[in-house]
């Protein structure tokens, strides 16, 4: 139950916040870094594809969480009846083993998703820290226009994109926009949601592995008692 609630919460945060943050990121790029549509056409397609993938992830984990919850209740009740007349079947043990394997695979995949979701947080943090340094009176900068953020170096847009970078007061204006502020914090929440999902899958793995091991042990015990 704890893993299911944590999984639903993490996936909801990742999918919801990630979807809105991607839209805000595309708006920032179109308005300030790549004003020619053809320069970021591929990035637009990639973002739209990622948003469709987010829809699929949300739907899949909603169903998978319910199935795992039901399977957990079933195997837990089976484990509790070790000394009763409850008999496990080969089909039931195979299904439990399949869920163990699938949950391990999904856990590894979500570790990759968690790492990938930290990339935009890092990029936005670099831009935000640059803007903070410009506004800081301690910095004592004589020429603010020499401070720039070039998003082309991250491979987000091609090198021929115009203008491709923002400097000085223009960069400060970008950091003050609602799109930047909202996208930055939504990426942080989405990354936290991915981390929560990883923890939920780890709990699932521990529970399903334990229940499967006990069911397998009980099946051997049942076979021994027949002879």
Automatic annotation (TrEMBL):
<feature type="transmembrane region" description="Helical">
    <location>
        <begin position="186"/>
        <end position="210"/>
    </location>
</feature>
<dbReference type="Pfam" id="PF01275">
    <property type="entry name" value="Myelin_PLP"/>
</dbReference>
<dbReference type="GO" id="GO:0061564">
    <property type="term" value="P:axon development"/>
</dbReference>
<dbReference type="GO" id="GO:0022010">
    <property type="term" value="P:central nervous system myelination"/>
</dbReference>
<feature type="transmembrane region" description="Helical">
    <location>
        <begin position="95"/>
        <end position="125"/>
    </location>
</feature>
<dbReference type="GO" id="GO:0019911">
    <property type="term" value="F:structural constituent of myelin sheath"/>
</dbReference>
<comment type="similarity">
    <text>Belongs to the myelin proteolipid protein family.</text>
</comment>
<protein>
    <submittedName>
        <fullName>Glycoprotein M6B</fullName>
    </submittedName>
</protein>
<keyword id="KW-1133">Transmembrane helix</keyword>
<keyword id="KW-0472">Membrane</keyword>
<dbReference type="GO" id="GO:0005886">
    <property type="term" value="C:plasma membrane"/>
</dbReference>
<dbReference type="InterPro" id="IPR001614">
    <property type="entry name" value="Myelin_PLP"/>
</dbReference>
<keyword id="KW-0812">Transmembrane</keyword>
<feature type="transmembrane region" description="Helical">
    <location>
        <begin position="52"/>
        <end position="74"/>
    </location>
</feature>
<dbReference type="GO" id="GO:0043209">
    <property type="term" value="C:myelin sheath"/>
</dbReference>
<dbReference type="InterPro" id="IPR018237">
    <property type="entry name" value="Myelin_PLP_CS"/>
</dbReference>
């Amino acid at each position: 139950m704890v893993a299911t609630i944590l999984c639903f919460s993490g996936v909801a945060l990742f999918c919801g916040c990630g979807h809105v943050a991607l839209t805000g990121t595309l708006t920032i790029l179109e308005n300030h870094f790549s004003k020619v549509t053809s320069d970021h056409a591929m990035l637009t397609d990639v973002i739209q594809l990622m948003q469709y993938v987010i829809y699929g992830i949300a739907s899949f984990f909603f169903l998978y969480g319910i199935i795992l919850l039901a399977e957990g209740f079933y195997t837990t009740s089976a484990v509790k009846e070790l000394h009763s007349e409850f008999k496990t079947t080969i089909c039931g043990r195979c299904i439990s083993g399949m869920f163990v394997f699938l949950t391990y695979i999904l856990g590894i995949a979500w570790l990759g998703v968690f790492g990938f979701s930290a990339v935009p947080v890092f990029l936005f943090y670099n831009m935000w820290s640059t803007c903070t340094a410009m506004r800081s009176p301690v910095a004592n900068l004589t020429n603010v226009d020499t401070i720039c953020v070039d998003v082309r170096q991250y491979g987000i847009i091609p090198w021929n994109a115009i203008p491709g970078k923002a400097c000085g007061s223009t960069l400060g204006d970008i950091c003050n926009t609602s799109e930047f502020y909202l996208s930055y914090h939504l990426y942080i929440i989405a990354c936290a949601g991915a981390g929560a999902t990883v923890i939920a899958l780890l709990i699932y793995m521990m529970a399903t592995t334990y229940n499967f091991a006990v069911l397998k042990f009980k099946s051997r015990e049942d076979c021994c008692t027949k002879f």
